[in-house]
Amino acid sequence: MIFEVCVNPRSSRNRVERQGNKLKVYLTKPACEGMANKQLVDLLSEYLEIKKYQIRIRSGKKSRQKLVEIDAD
């Protein structure tokens, strides 16, 4: 399963909003040195109740617009 994710780093709190087939994710970490991407995987893992290794950022590692693949095995 592939999701489109819009990320907003440096927010006041972490949260996930579902907008149709897209996810809008607010992260407290800044978008430098991969900190926001790591926090994105952690937060999506909790939100979707799956293991972290099942989440992979397919594209947009340096962008706010990302494609995230979920391996549901």
How would you describe what is shown here?
By secondary structure, the protein is an alpha+beta fold. It is 19% helix and 38% strand. The protein contains one helix and five strands. The protein has a five-stranded mixed β-sheet, with helices on one face. The protein is globular and about 30 Å long. The model has no long low-confidence stretch (mean pLDDT 94).
Keywords:
alpha+beta; 5 strands; 73 residues; globular; 1 helix; Conserved Hypothetical Protein Mth637, Chain: A
Could you state the order of secondary-structure elements as H and E? EEEHEE
What general form does the structure show? globular
What composes the largest sheet?
Answer: 5 strands, mixed
Terminal CA distance: 11 Å
* CATH homologous group name: YggU-like
Percent of residues in helices comes to 10-25%
CATH architecture: 2-Layer Sandwich
Question: What Rg is obtained from the alpha carbons, in whole angstroms?
Answer: 11 Å
What count of helical segments does DSSP give? 1
Give the uncertain stretches in residue-range form: none
Strand content: 35-45%
Major β-sheet strand ordering: 2-3-1-5-4
- Which CATH top level class fits? Alpha Beta
Average per-residue pLDDT, rounded, comes to 94
Question: What is the third-level CATH name, the topology?
Answer: Conserved Hypothetical Protein Mth637, Chain: A
User: How many domains, as an integer?
Assistant: 1
Total E-strand runs: 5
Q: What is the structural class? A: alpha+beta
